[in-house]
Amino acid sequence: MLRVMVWGTRLNRLSWVVGALGLLSACTLNETALPATERPAGANVALDSRPVTDIPIPEDATLDNERSLILSSRDQWTGRIVMKVGQSPSKAFAFYQREMPAFRWTPIMSVQSEISVLTFTREDRAATVQVQSRTISGAIVIVTIAPRQVGQPATVQAVPLGR
Prior knowledge:
Oligomer: single chain
Distance between the termini: 83 Å
Largest sheet: 8 strands, antiparallel
Helix content: 10-25%
């Protein structure tokens, strides 16, 4: 009887450990490592391994395949890229604020808060970068790029409240 109880306890522990390992591995099943980008002038990165080439990608970024949607490729894509990065949200925000203009994106506006937002334009496209904290550490960066609406001004005009 004692031998059966000890075996049952060991089996329960083993089942718990295997289950925990399965949960941890499932967290990374839908992620792909992204090669970091360099500024276009000195790009030494193998361009064939990157899904897009017109935005900066931090060194430790992983692509969330389930939440990302890339239509077309390289320098003229439309869609959404969701990345997990090891940088803090404030460092990721500063990275995109500094590096997007190096990729010929013109800053339009930025707001740094719990969910930070940066907006840029480039030729006939607009980009929105959202940065937010991850549960454990690092940040989630969501870059959405779409064609800019035709006939819409590139600048935002403020209208006083109460009118």
